[in-house]
């Protein structure tokens, strides 16, 4: 086995990229990247009836959004069918596999009889040790000649040693009668040929590992390290499904979760590094080890997800956030920002990013920078624009025209006007919010004025003054 760690993510392109699959990809990516290894991507498209180019595109797009770059070309499992068949025939030639001519009717009859007699219904082919001279001129499958006695041990990096008695496993079909390989054979051949050293995947594949180990042993190949991770459950402790909300990764992007926050949260979903909840990609790569993965299913907690995402938005560079917002608007099928809006948003991000948990919230807080005159005032904010308040705005506009455009001077000018009317600053701030943003809830009015600049701020205040 190579000294370099090689992991892979191998989704089936039969639908969207499930959030559980995204976490599996993330674990593989973190482990490879943290150890200076390679992270490979294989599309398991052997189910030609259900595999679609659209699903493959959705998987690639989801991984791209999440920032999980892979090494080398994307491998198509279906394209390797000839190689898979070649391995089946190698095992056949070495006596590690055999031709089975049993029909579906014969297999069904065997199982019915076994069930009636209270025996194991695992099919035991009469062709396992048959003389080749007795072979009929008929279609056949190639079955693995699996050991009938003893046990197969899966030395799992997460689950520990898992022992499965060999009499609980049948002689699995490696090559169908039409010459096409089965998934169970194809996975092993691909992992071996791609040099995969660590197979990190969901624990729903745990029983598959025992069968796959038998193929490795039949071929005399190195067995990779297996790490079967528990599935993700919903907040109610039941297997994650659509009833819990979004399960497809693209839905999370369209809802406005930032990719950095998703990476952080998904990494923490079933893996831990002490009590650390918030961490950077660099820390995750440095810290991630298989022994930090728990054995119990992780529960999706949307409140925690939002909190982590909020922390990532707060520390993100403005240019990266702008790129993320552009991608979010496209995913949510919303109108893109104009060049003018992008520049205005870039200026506003430093004052709004510290208090938003998701991108739609961020855009709402930055509304003052994205909107243009005449400012449309929402109903709640309009209540702050009575005749008295408009008169105060008029005075304030005059005072601000003579002020230096610094926070200190802006606060002083507003404070003087408020004091002259026997009001607290909050009473003056409400009509200012309405005039500057058309909203009742906004960032600090002084932050908004500094972002908008003297001319635009004064124009907006004048527009709503008497």
TrEMBL record:
Residues 4-306 form the Glutamyl/glutaminyl-tRNA synthetase class Ib catalytic domain. PROSITE patterns: AA_TRNA_LIGASE_I. The keyword Ligase applies. Its main location: cytoplasm. CDD domains: GluRS_core (cd00808). Pfam families: Anticodon_2 (PF19269), tRNA-synt_1c (PF00749). ATP binds at residue 242. This is Glutamate--tRNA ligase. The gene is gltX.
């Amino acid at each position: 086995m190579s000294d370099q760690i090689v992991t892979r993510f191998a989704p089936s392109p039969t639908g969207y990229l499930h959030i559980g699959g995204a976490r599996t990809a993330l674990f593989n990516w973190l482990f490879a990247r943290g150890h200076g290894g390679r992270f490979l991507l294989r599309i398991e498209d052997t189910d030609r009836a259900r595999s679609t180019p659209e699903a493959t595109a959705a998987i690639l797009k989801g991984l791209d959004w999440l920032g999980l770059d892979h090494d080398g070309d994307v491998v198509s499992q279906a394209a390797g069918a000839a190689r898979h068949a070649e391995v089946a025939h190698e095992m056949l030639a070495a006596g590690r596999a055999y031709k089975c001519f049993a029909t579906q009717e014969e297999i069904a009859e065997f199982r019915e009889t076994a069930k009636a007699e209270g025996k194991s219904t695992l099919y035991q082919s009469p062709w396992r040790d048959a003389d080749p001279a007795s072979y009929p001129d008929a279609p056949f499958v190639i079955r693995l000649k699996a050991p009938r006695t003893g046990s197969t041990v899966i030395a799992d990096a997460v689950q520990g040693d898992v022992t499965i008695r060999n009499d609980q496993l049948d002689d699995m079909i490696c090559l169908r009668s039409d010459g096409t390989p089965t998934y169970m054979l194809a996975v092993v051949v691909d992992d071996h040929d791609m040099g995969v050293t660590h197979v990190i995947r969901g624990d729903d594949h745990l029983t598959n590992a025992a069968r796959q180990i038998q193929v490795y042993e039949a071929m005399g190949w190195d067995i990779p390290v297996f790490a079967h991770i528990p599935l993700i459950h919903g907040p109610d402790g039941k297997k994650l499904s659509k009833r819990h909300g979004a399960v497809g990764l693209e839905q999370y992007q369209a809802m406005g979760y930032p990719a950095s926050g998703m990476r952080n949260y998904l990494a923490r979903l079933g893996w831990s590094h002490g009590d650390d909840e918030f961490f950077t990609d660099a820390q995750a790569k440095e810290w991630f080890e298989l022994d930090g993965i728990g054995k119990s299913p992780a529960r999706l907690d949307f409140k925690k997800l939002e909190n982590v995402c909020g922390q990532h938005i707060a520390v993100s560079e403005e240019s990266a956030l702008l790129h993320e917002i552009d991608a979010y608007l496209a995913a949510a099928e919303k109108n893109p920002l104009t060049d003018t809006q992008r520049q205005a948003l870039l200026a506003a991000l430093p004052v709004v990013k510290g208090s938003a948990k998701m991108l739609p919230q961020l855009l709402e807080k930055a509304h003052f920078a994205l909107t243009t005159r005449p400012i449309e005032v929402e109903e709640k904010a309009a209540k702050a624009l009575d005749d008295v308040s408009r008169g105060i705005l008029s005075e304030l506009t005059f005072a601000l025209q003579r002020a230096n455009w610094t926070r200190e001077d802006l606060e002083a000018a507003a404070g003087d006007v408020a004091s002259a009317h026997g009001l607290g600053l909050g009473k003056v701030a409400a009509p200012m919010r309405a005039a500057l943003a058309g909203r009742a809830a906004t960032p600090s009015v002084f932050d908004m004025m500094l972002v908008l600049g003297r001319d635009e701020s004064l124009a907006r205040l004048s527009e709503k003054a008497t």
